[in-house]
Amino acid sequence: MYRYHQRLKKLYHENSFLVKPDQVIKDRQLIKYWRKKQSLFSKFDEKPIFLTNELWYSVTPEKIAKFIAKFVRTSLPNATKVLDVFCGAGGNTIQLALEFEKVYGVDLSLDHLYCTYKNAEAYNVNDRIWLKYGSWEKLAKKGRFSKLGIDFVFGSPPWGGPQYLQERSYDLEISLKPMGITHLLRSMISVSPNVMLFLPRNSNLEQVSRATMQVLGSQGHCRTVYVKDSGFTKGILCMWGPSLVNAGRENQEVFENVGSPSPSPLKDTVNYDLDG
């Protein structure tokens, strides 16, 4: 534990991973993310933002993170405590903290947790966020969050970097890290019945269906939402729990830009377009 404190102390002392306005991006793979950095965090020009190289391509764009947070707030109006299982740079954690009283964040990287907290300061929500260092698999197995009264669990697990698009059909049991979707869903359901995962746009939805049946039984339901930005599909939201699955059924105008259903092996598929 001592070495973790020393590592954090060093990160704070050196102001590590601060993105500077005149910063020279040496990694060619990151240049395209640098050019659209404003879409990752809208406060880039106003406040200090902190990102490791990995976080440049793994953070959820702010527009999508905001949509997710507002969707969940509308679906679960009485919720107060939520959990972000793979908090990374804090993109989703921050937007959830703008909607809910308390947000727990988990990550296996101290560098990521540090960035989450520093970025939360930029949005003035650091007092609503409680961060935990550790492996989600181990924390879930020990029941670390099962008795905290968590109302909703969100996860945007590592997709394996930009290379995930090289797969025609993304294997959610093999390629998804740190565990396959069945194991991951079971661990999250043990904390709250309301669960949402942000997954690659080329995900194998048959695996989502099988995981739902294995974890929740033949009567289990999963809702899939295709999220688009400027006409391009950015990912798929898969959600479980009656409040999330049935949200907006009676009055779909609660959500902006609802498109026509897209074909899928799962029921309740809706296409949400983020275009204004």
Automatic annotation (TrEMBL):
Q: Which InterPro entries does the annotation name? A: RNA_cap_Gua-N2-MeTrfase, SAM-dependent_MTases_sf
> What's its catalytic activity?
a 5'-end (N(2),N(7)-dimethyl 5'-triphosphoguanosine)-ribonucleoside in snoRNA + S-adenosyl-L-methionine = a 5'-end (N(2),N(2),N(7)-trimethyl 5'-triphosphoguanosine)-ribonucleoside in snoRNA + S-adenosyl-L-homocysteine + H(+); a 5'-end (N(2),N(7)-dimethyl 5'-triphosphoguanosine)-ribonucleoside in snRNA + S-adenosyl-L-methionine = a 5'-end (N(2),N(2),N(7)-trimethyl 5'-triphosphoguanosine)-ribonucleoside in snRNA + S-adenosyl-L-homocysteine + H(+); a 5'-end (N(7)-methyl 5'-triphosphoguanosine)-ribonucleoside in snRNA + S-adenosyl-L-methionine = a 5'-end (N(2),N(7)-dimethyl 5'-triphosphoguanosine)-ribonucleoside in snRNA + S-adenosyl-L-homocysteine + H(+); a 5'-end (N(7)-methyl 5'-triphosphoguanosine)-ribonucleoside in snoRNA + S-adenosyl-L-methionine = a 5'-end (N(2),N(7)-dimethyl 5'-triphosphoguanosine)-ribonucleoside in snoRNA + S-adenosyl-L-homocysteine + H(+)
What Gene Ontology molecular function terms does this protein carry?
Answer: RNA cap trimethylguanosine synthase activity
- Name the segments for region: Disordered: 255-276
Cellular component GO terms held in the UniProt record: nucleus
Domain of life of the source: Eukaryota
- State the PANTHER family in the record: S-ADENOSYLMETHIONINE-DEPENDENT METHYLTRANSFERASE RELATED, TRIMETHYLGUANOSINE SYNTHASE
Q: Which family does it belong to?
A: Belongs to the methyltransferase superfamily. Trimethylguanosine synthase family.
Please identify the protein, giving its name as recorded: Trimethylguanosine synthase
The scientific name of the source species is Zygosaccharomyces mellis
